[in-house]
């Protein structure tokens, strides 16, 4: 159960024949290789296989155990270097040697690299994507704006020129008025992007943007634009063929973003019709014009900034993505088109299978609202800090038969070397409201233990008043920061969850299927016998600075496969709780009702073995077992380190340890410096994301030692900065 | 081809029409459920008035015992001053130490909870000041012996010594690793004459330790408190010893006595503390800084015993199978036996509420009917059951002896359900050679070699006690029910006999009352005539645990020599 594609492949050959002038149709590709990693490899290979095209995939050695690395008919090793997916010459050579006639670049990596497209073509292979010239034109943000302006596409005011003098850029920004947006010229995916609220911040932010641009794209040039206060991110999916036909396949709203990375994407964009009846059509037309202006071919996305506050729904061209997008499934759901199929047809030299009218008619007939949630390994409740590690438990949702495009399976390790997106969950409904409700149910079933994910956070977004309903009242790209207080609020842990965690900790056998040997062992199966030989155990959890003590008194059992406890949380009596194993899960009978839940504890593969994860009533609760003083004392005596983990937020810690493997980008402090709360200490990078580490000390504290220099690779749990006592 | 086949077939004789009633008697297949004729058919009506009345009577006895047990085990009954002092020293209460020691979710079979009950006048010695029992530690069944320092500082009363020795005996017989949680002030000085010098007194503890060690029964000590004088030998004679820094002290004489004897002034810690013993004298092997750490260390030491774990393999050749509970509710036992030993009932009703699936394969059902013998399983352990359904006659004795021989030869452990007024008396019985035939039964019991378990479910009088494997006959475990009575004879008869011998009238009532009191379950249990009074409904559990403890792990089998003598 990796993924479900609901769109059916239609008989493109007859459709194509009816539209083509040529009497002889060009042949469909024979052997396609996918120069990418993860779910998109599955996605492309699935459609290619359905079309009878032989498939080849690439993988680097760190990815060698992920499912995609064995998903194609032919799977080629790019070697140990993690940058393997960027090695153009090697990829082209291997594709050629292995008899491929075409290369699909997926998204990210080389997908928008015109040099790569050229190399592919020079080698006599077909690049599944636009012509290199179109990529080049759209790749440079400043040049694309010029072309768009000429083509009559409306653009946001800004400076897109070559002058990179910081003073000059600052002056330009002042001209268009703050706030302004700094973007990497070759950027994408939010990298090298900064919002500057005031003139005072400009130079510092510029330096940071340039540094990130340099490390991400090897080019530090940036552009500056007017920043629209409450923009919505609305984009149009376009398709063009070699015969000059361009169509739009609806739009997508991707306004819910964090750090400029999309979290939720949906189609259609809600409420556009409320601005003006022809708002969408206007947008489609501009998008098609944009594609035409660069002689576009294949799949592309024209991104617009939609000004929420404009009365008529004003939108500006932002950029064009010359690739298949991560969020393409929502378009597939609302149009019934297999976008990869169209890409492969067009790359084969076939015309567009459908006209704009036919597409519109299909969309009207389907009348579907689709939404996609990107599942990232990151901790939204801790500044979206990237997370990595082994997936100890994973349950994919089944409810409502959602589409799942996923990269990782249970037991896989999410590496800090690559993107933190581990999968996508896509659902559809007859209305937006229905789609959201179905997404919520599916997310309740989506369980991942190991790396921290944003699943809980997405549930919060879905619950939020401003996002709900058919016409959300508060949808724009500022949604997450604006509602941080509600979205990131600590909602607390119910007592029932502590009881479950305590039982899982102290009586793990109660929750697993007893082996027949275990069941026959009288000591573990008769339960307590006697007049009052009851055993009482305490399990203590840490809840911030407080401790939560669960008291479990083992009661005489009635059934050898069940264990009954009189439970108390703190002083509060919970009553008798019966725990047993049920279909691979834990079943808890409370006096108030019963639950069949997943509980994960005592797993040495978890970054922190003290963690207990309880999935209770659709919420993933993580509680932490307290370490008794005597164990701390023993560890100290034997010189065992503190539990692996590390945190940037512990105000009491005299050591700043990294909770994730990372690379040091910049060190701001040096030994002897005195830092106060929130002062910048250093900048690290993990999972392609820069994080500024700030002091958590309540009192000014002197830095004793800085353990690393920029460029160092650091293991999880390593101490980065040491303070003086 | 076809033709050849046809020709071959022509040799087959045509079947004749079968004459009615003379067909060959082929075995007609029956499903295993159809042949389940061993299931005991209960005739008890739990809704009857008779049952209700018996149950009520029984519950009076049971409730009384429940309350005594609660006072012994519930920490709420530890005097506040003692408890506070104990906890203030970062010490864990004795029963909580055991909870921490054993595997979570497993049973702790605490033994002889009533030891010392009402034995020392106003001195209350709950559970005899020492906690003993069977517990599973890292999968291994162990005998746990824990001093209770909240009872008179953990000092040894005479009953404490006996309970300690009994625990060692159980460990020795059943080859169970023995874990000592030592926290004792040594001999209780006012009782020194009844504690110190005799055969089964204090010294015997160390004699036993040495014997156990030579029999390869592992012994581990965790020193949590003082081990003074003789007590010092408990850790010293263990295979491995752990000591808690600051808490545990081992010395032949404590600081006051040292000062009196030699004038040396020395602190307890310097004289016999953990640091000194672990680094200088070598008396202890592991130094720990807290009781919790000590308990974890002890668990680790058990792991390193390389001792077989409980694994449900009930016999060497049996594959484990799911366990079948009895068909009838064991909670009905109280209403079946009642509180009046004179009211008889069919003991099969008791068996039906103890054995797997209430299935009992009865041996010689029609012969010597007052002793019911047969095979059953308890938690998949095959057992041979001998249960009284009246006094022992010559025939029943012979039947029992025969049955025991079968079990001995087949290595099947024996379970005795005792409810016996004695061997039959009178001239007819004597002429029938009851003494000789009874002797055969006694001899068979003693020589049976297999593990024996006795539950006194009613009366245990006279030589019946012996024939039915009473305490003196070394059953591995002996448990009693609240309604049971143990005495040389019934109080009434005893009083009559005394009256006739002494021809004194006035004393009869007082004597009868005294004997009545002395035959009660709690009186005997206080004196370790048994290993504990249990609720009838728990009998199955206790027997299962006892069987696991005796036959699991390491086991020594006695060899048989004669063939079976049919009696």
TrEMBL record, chain A:
Protein name: YALI0B14619p
GO biological process, one term: small molecule metabolic process
Key words of the record: ATP-binding, Biotin, Ligase, Nucleotide-binding
InterPro entries given in the database record: ATP-grasp, BC-like_N, Biotin_carboxylase_complex, Biotin_carboxylation_dom, Biotin_COase_C, Biotin_lipoyl, CPAse_ATP-bd, PreATP-grasp_dom_sf
Residues of the ATP-grasp domain: 145-348
GO cellular component terms, semicolon-separated: mitochondrion
GO molecular function, one term: ligase activity
Residues covered by the Biotin carboxylation domain: 28-485
Cofactors (names): biotin
Pfam families the UniProt entry points to: Biotin_carb_C, Biotin_carb_N, Biotin_lipoyl, CPSase_L_D2
Domain Lipoyl-binding: from-to ranges: 645-724
TrEMBL record, chain B:
GO cellular component annotations of the record: methylcrotonoyl-CoA carboxylase complex; mitochondrion
This protein's pathway: Amino-acid degradation; L-leucine degradation; (S)-3-hydroxy-3-methylglutaryl-CoA from 3-isovaleryl-CoA: step 2/3
GO BP annotations listed: L-leucine catabolic process
Domain CoA carboxyltransferase C-terminal as annotated: residue spans: 322-549
Top EC class for this record: ligase
Reactions the enzyme catalyzes: 3-methylbut-2-enoyl-CoA + hydrogencarbonate + ATP = 3-methyl-(2E)-glutaconyl-CoA + ADP + phosphate + H(+)
GO molecular function: methylcrotonoyl-CoA carboxylase activity; transferase activity
Entry EC no(s): 6.4.1.4
Start and end residues of each CoA carboxyltransferase N-terminal domain: 54-317
InterPro entries: AcCoA_carboxyl_beta (IPR034733), ClpP/crotonase-like_dom_sf (IPR029045), COA_CT_C (IPR011763), COA_CT_N (IPR011762), MCCB/AccD1-like (IPR045190)
Pfam families documented for this protein: Carboxyl_trans
Keywords noted in UniProt: Transferase
Domain of life: Eukaryota
PANTHER family per record: ACETYL, PROPIONYL, PYRUVATE, AND GLUTACONYL CARBOXYLASE-RELATED, METHYLCROTONOYL-COA CARBOXYLASE BETA CHAIN, MITOCHONDRIAL
Family named by the database record: Belongs to the AccD/PCCB family.
Descriptive protein name: methylcrotonoyl-CoA carboxylase
Taxon lineage: Eukaryota, Fungi, Dikarya, Ascomycota, Saccharomycotina
């Amino acid at each position: 159960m990796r993924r479900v594609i609901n769109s059916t492949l239609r008989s493109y050959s007859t459709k194509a024949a009816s539209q083509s002038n040529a009497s002889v149709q060009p042949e469909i590709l024979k052997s396609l290789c996918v120069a990418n990693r993860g779910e998109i490899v599955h996605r492309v290979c699935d459609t290619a296989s359905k079309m009878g095209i032989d498939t080849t995939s690439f993988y680097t050695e760190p990815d060698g155990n992920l499912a995609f690395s064995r998903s194609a008919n032919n799977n080629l090793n790019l070697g140990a270097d993690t940058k393997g997916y960027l090695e153009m010459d090697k990829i082209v050579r291997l594709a050629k040697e292995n008899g491929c006639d075409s290369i699909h670049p997926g998204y990210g990596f080389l997908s928008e690299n015109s040099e790569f497209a050229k190399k592919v073509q020079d080698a006599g292979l077909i690049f599944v994507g636009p012509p290199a010239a179109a990529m080049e034109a759209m790749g440079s943000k400043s040049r694309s704006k010029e072309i768009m302006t000429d083509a009559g596409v409306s653009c946001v005011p800004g400076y897109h020129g070559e002058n990179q003098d910081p003073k000059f850029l600052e002056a330009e920004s002042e001209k268009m008025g703050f706030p302004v947006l700094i973007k990497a010229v070759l950027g994408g995916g939010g990298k090298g992007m900064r919002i500057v609220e005031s003139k005072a911040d400009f130079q510092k932010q510029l330096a940071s943007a340039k540094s990130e641009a340099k490390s991400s794209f090897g080019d530090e040039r940036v552009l500056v634009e007017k920043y629209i206060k409450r923009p919505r991110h609305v984009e149009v999916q376009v398709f063009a063929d070699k015969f000059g036909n361009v169509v739009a396949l609806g739009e997508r709203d991707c306004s819910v973003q964090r750090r400029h990375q999309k979290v939720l994407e949906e189609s259609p964009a809600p409420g556009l019709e409320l601005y003006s009846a022809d708002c969408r059509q206007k947008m489609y037309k501009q998008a098609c014009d944009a594609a035409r202006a660069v002689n576009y071919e294949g799949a592309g996305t024209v991104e617009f900034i939609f000004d929420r506050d404009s009365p008529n729904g004003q939108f500006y061209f932002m950029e064009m993505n010359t690739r298949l997008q991560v969020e393409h499934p929502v378009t597939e759901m609302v149009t019934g088109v297999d976008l990869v199929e169209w890409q492969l047809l067009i790359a084969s030299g076939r015309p567009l299978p459908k006209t704009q009218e036919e597409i519109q008619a299909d969309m009207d007939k389907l009348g579907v609202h689709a939404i996609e949630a990107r599942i990232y390994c990151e901790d939204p409740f801790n500044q979206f800090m990237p997370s990595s590690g082994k997936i100890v438990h994973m349950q994919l949702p089944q409810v409502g038969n959602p589409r799942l495009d996923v990269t990782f399976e249970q037991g896989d390790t999410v590496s800090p070397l690559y993107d933190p997106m581990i999968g996508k969950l896509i659902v559809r409904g007859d209305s937006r409201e229905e789609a959201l409700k179905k997404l919520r149910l599916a997310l309740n079933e989506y369980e991942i233990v190991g790396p921290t994910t944003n699943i809980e956070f997405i549930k919060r977004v879905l619950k939020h008043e401003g996002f709900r309903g058919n016409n959300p009242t508060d949808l724009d790209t500022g949604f997450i920061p604006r509602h941080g207080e509600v979205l990131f609020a600590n909602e607390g842990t119910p007592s029932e969850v502590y009881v479950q965690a305590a039982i899982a900790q102290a009586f793990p056998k109660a929750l697993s299927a007893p082996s027949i040997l275990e069941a026959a062992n009288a000591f573990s199966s008769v339960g307590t016998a006697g007049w009052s030989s009851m055993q009482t155990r305490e399990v203590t959890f840490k809840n911030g600075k407080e401790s939560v003590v669960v008291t479990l008194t083992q009661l005489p059992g009635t059934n050898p496969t069940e264990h009954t406890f009189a439970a108390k949380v703190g002083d509060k009596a919970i009553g008798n709780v019966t725990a047993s194993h049920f279909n691979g899960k834990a079943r808890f009978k409370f006096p108030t009702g019963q639950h069949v839940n997943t509980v994960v504890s005592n797993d040495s593969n978890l970054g922190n073995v003290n963690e207990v994860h309880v999935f209770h009533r659709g919420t993933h609760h993580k509680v932490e077992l307290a370490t008794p003083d005597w164990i701390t004392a023993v560890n100290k005596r034997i010189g065992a380190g503190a539990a692996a983990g590390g945190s940037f937020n512990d105000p009491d810690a005299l050591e700043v340890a990294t909770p994730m493997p990372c690379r040091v980008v910049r060190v701001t402090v040096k030994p002897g410096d005195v830092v106060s709360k929130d002062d910048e200490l250093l900048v690290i990078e993990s999972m392609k994301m820069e994080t500024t580490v700030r002091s958590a000390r309540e009192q000014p504290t002197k830095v004793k030692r800085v353990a690393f220099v920029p460029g160092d690779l650091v293991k999880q749990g390593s101490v980065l900065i040491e303070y003086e006592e | 081809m076809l033709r050849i086949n046809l020709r071959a077939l022509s040799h087959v004789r045509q079947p004749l029409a079968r004459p009615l009633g003379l067909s060959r008697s082929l075995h007609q297949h029956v499903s295993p459920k159809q042949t389940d004729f061993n299931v005991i058919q209960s005739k008890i009506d739990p809704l009857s008035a008779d049952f209700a009345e018996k149950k009520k009577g029984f519950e009076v006895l049971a409730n009384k015992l429940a309350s005594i047990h609660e006072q012994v085990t519930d920490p709420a009954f530890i005097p506040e001053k003692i408890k506070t002092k104990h906890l203030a020293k970062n010490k864990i209460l004795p029963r909580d130490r055991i909870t921490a020691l054993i595997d979570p979710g497993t049973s702790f079979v605490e033994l002889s909870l009533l030891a010392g009950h009402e034995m020392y006048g106003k001195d209350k010695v709950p559970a005899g000041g020492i906690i003993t029992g069977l517990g599973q530690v890292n999968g291994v069944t162990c005998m746990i012996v824990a001093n209770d320092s909240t009872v008179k500082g953990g000092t040894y009363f005479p009953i404490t010594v006996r309970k300690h020795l009994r625990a060692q005996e159980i460990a020795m017989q059943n080859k169970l690793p023995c874990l000592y949680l030592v926290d004792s002030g040594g001999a209780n000085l006012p009782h020194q004459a009844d504690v110190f010098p005799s055969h089964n007194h204090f010294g015997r503890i160390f004699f036993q330790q040495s014997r156990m060690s030579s029999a390869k029964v592992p012994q581990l000590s965790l020193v949590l408190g003082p081990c003074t004088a003789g007590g010092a030998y408990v850790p010293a004679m263990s295979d491995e010893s752990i000591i808690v820094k600051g808490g545990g002290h081992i010395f032949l004489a404590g600081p006051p006595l040292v000062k009196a004897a030699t004038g040396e002034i020395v602190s307890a810690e310097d004289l016999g503390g953990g640091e000194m013993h672990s680094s200088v004298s070598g008396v202890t092997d592991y130094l720990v800084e807290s009781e919790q750490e000590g308990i974890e260390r002890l668990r680790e030491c058990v792991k390193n015993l390389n001792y077989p774990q409980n694994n449900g393999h009930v016999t060497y050749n049996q594959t484990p199978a799911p366990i079948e509970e009895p068909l009838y509710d064991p909670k009905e036992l109280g209403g079946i036996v009642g509180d009046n030993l004179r009211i008889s009932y069919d003991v099969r009703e008791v068996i039906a509420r103890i054995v797997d699936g209430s299935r009992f394969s009865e041996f010689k059902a029609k012969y010597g009917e007052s002793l019911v013998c047969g095979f059953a399983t308890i938690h998949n352990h095959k057992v041979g059951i001998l249960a009284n359904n009246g006094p022992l006659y010559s025939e029943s004795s012979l039947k029992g002896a025969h049955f025991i021989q079968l079990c001995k030869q087949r290595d099947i452990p024996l379970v005795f359900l005792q409810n016996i007024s004695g061997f039959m008396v009178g001239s007819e019985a004597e002429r029938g050679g009851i003494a000789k035939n009874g002797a055969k039964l006694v001899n068979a019991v003693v020589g049976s070699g297999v593990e024996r378990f006795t539950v006194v479910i009613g009366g245990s009088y006279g030589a019946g006690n012996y024939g039915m494997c009473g305490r003196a006959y070394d059953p591995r475990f002996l448990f009693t029910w609240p309604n049971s009575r143990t005495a040389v004879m019934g109080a009434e008869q005893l009083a009559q006999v005394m009256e006739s011998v002494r021809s004194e009238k006035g004393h009869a009532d007082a004597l009868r009352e005294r004997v009545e009191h002395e035959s009660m379950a709690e009186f005997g249990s206080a004196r370790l005539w048994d290993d504990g009074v249990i609720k009838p409904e728990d009998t199955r559990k206790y027997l299962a645990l006892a069987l696991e403890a005796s036959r699991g792990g390491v086991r020594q089998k006695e060899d048989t020599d004669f063939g079976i003598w049919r009696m």
